[in-house]
């Protein structure tokens, strides 16, 4: 049995600016979501939520949340950066916003609930990529914006946006990026 040519040995993200945001089959979106939430989750607490941003809602959030919040934070922004901010989410066909929503539990630490939310992000990313889509896990500045968090249904000061999983179509195969030297990060006890 060899891992060499399998999906996980070669998995690679495609940056959002290189995606083609044309339509993705509805059943593929459902498959990615259904498989994506099959993650380890101590106590089966489901301490995360996914908000699917698709169709008109990509433009809506770009124009009603991201751009006005950016302008508020950067009153002297250049025309170029305003143009970029006005189309952030529209780089993708669909964006899955993953919100970490920890709960009080007598035994399970919140840290583990946060980790499970990260696992949802990674799983959605891998599921989309395994179907041949371009996908990238992004936070950028607006994952840390309270107006974005609350618009997505998150509770201020409790919930956090773990990531936006951008999914679109590939224009070309991505080049390999620098990977860690395994001997520097892995050792045997
Ligand atoms: C939590 C998290 C947040 C990230 N946010 C950004 C970001 O805001 N901007 C960016 O360029 N890359 C960001 N990245 C990295 C991208 O996902 C990058 O494409 C990725 O490291 C490529 O790795 P891969 O080919 O192994 O999937 C983030 C990664 C993680 C895990």
Explain what you see.
With 189 residues, this protein is α+β, with helices and mostly antiparallel strands. 38% of the residues lie in helices and 17% in strands. The radius of gyration is 18 Å and the shape is globular. The site of flavin mononucleotide has 10 residues, from strand 4.
Coarse shape: globular
Give the class from helix and strand content and strand pairing. alpha+beta
CATH homologous superfamily label? NADH Oxidase
Total helical elements = 7
Number of domains: 1
CATH fold naming: NADH Oxidase
Taking pLDDT < 50 over at least 5 consecutive residues as the criterion, the unreliable ranges are: none
Largest sheet at a glance?
5 strands, antiparallel
The strand count comes to 5
Arithmetic mean of pLDDT: 97
State the share of residues found in helices, binned by percent.
25-40%
> Under the CATH scheme, which architecture would be assigned?
3-Layer(aba) Sandwich
Topology summary:
Elements lengths: L6 H4 L8 E2 L5 H11 L11 E7 L1 H18 L5 H7 L8 E7 L9 H21 L3 E5 L7 H6 L8 E11 L11 H4 L4
Antiparallel strand pairs: 1-5, 2-3, 3-5, 4-5
Helix pairs in contact: 2-5
The structure holds flavin mononucleotide.
List keywords for this structure.
single chain, 189 residues, alpha+beta, NADH Oxidase, binds flavin mononucleotide
